[in-house]
Each structure stands twice: as structure tokens, then as C-alpha cells.
Protein: N-acetyltransferase domain-containing protein
Amino acid sequence: MSIVVRDVREHELDSVLALNNAAGPGILPIDAARLRRFFDTAEYFRVAEHDGNLAGVLMAFGSDSAHDSANFRWFRERHGDFLYIDRIVVASRRRGGGVGRALYADVQGYAEARYPELACEVFLQEGSDPALLFHGSFGFHEIGQNLQTDGTRACMLMKPMCSHNWIRETYGDKLPDVPWVARPRTLRTAHRPTGTSL
Structure:
């Protein structure tokens, strides 16, 4: 009954697409081409397994990326250095079982060593209270709202990475070579200009 968070594998993209598009109105649907772009460009793209089965996924982009999301641009126009969570999806049968918390703990551990803030949004619509409560309990706070093209409002959330300054002052560009701080698959060959060499 354990949850394992690990890098997504290319052959899992069809399953990730199905998971995303079955998530309901709180998650924007995507097509296979867009998911492939995420696979090729996301700084952080990891899945959660529960007893060997795909139970969730989280994708995130650094503030210096060329990500084309309107909500990402909203953050970039107002903030400097952050990691933006584009989406987190948990399989309906696994909601409330700790999958979302496992993914958020993992992405926070990744961000803490690299970014001063973690950003995301929650669409304000019927049934959004559990998502807002989840994010609030994880330390996110609202910094504004963004009106979507369909008229829906998004609650724009940020969380400061409390240990970021200490990590940067202590380790600079030379983070320790330990598994939990290692770069995800997408960064092992990609260039990240702000000192994150491992």
C-alpha cells in the first residue's frame, strides 16, 4: 500500500493523457500533442504509483521557461523566480489517500533547492473548496485572481520556499549529489541557466 513518486516514462504518456482528461472540470483537458510538449519541456514531470498502478501526475515549469499557459504568464508578469505547477491530477479512486500530498511534498523538495516560490492556481467554480483547502493546508496563499477566457476565475496561489535562501547561501551552485535533490529526467540533458548544476 505504498506510494512511490518517480519520473514519468515515455510509454506512460497515453495513460497520463487518459488520467488528465478524466479528471473533471478542475483540470483543463489536453491533447496528445500538448502532452508531448509537456514531456519534452517540463522541468518537473513526475508520476505517483500506488501498488504499482498510476495514481497521479504533477507537471511544473520554471519561471524562465517558454511555457505558453495564460496563468503561467500572469505569474511571470508579477514575479521573478518561481516554479509553476501547471497541473496535478489524482485518479478518482485514489483521491483522499495521500497521493496529492506525496506529489506536493516531492515537488516542494525539488523547488526548495532551486526557487524562492512555488506557484499554482485553482479554478473558482462549484466544488473548488476541497482544492482550495488542500492548497491552504499546504501553505499556499492567494495573491490575486485571473479571469479565464471562458469567464471562470482562477485563484492565483503562491507559497514561499522557506529554506531556499539558506540552501542557496550554503551550497550555491553545488547541491549535494543525493537522490532526493537530483534533477528530474527532463533536466538531466536540458540547460537551466540559474545555477542548478549537480
The first strand starts at residue 3 and ends at 7. Strands lie at 3-7, 44-50, 53-62, 83-90, 117-124, 141-147, 153-160. The two ends are 32 Å apart (CA to CA).
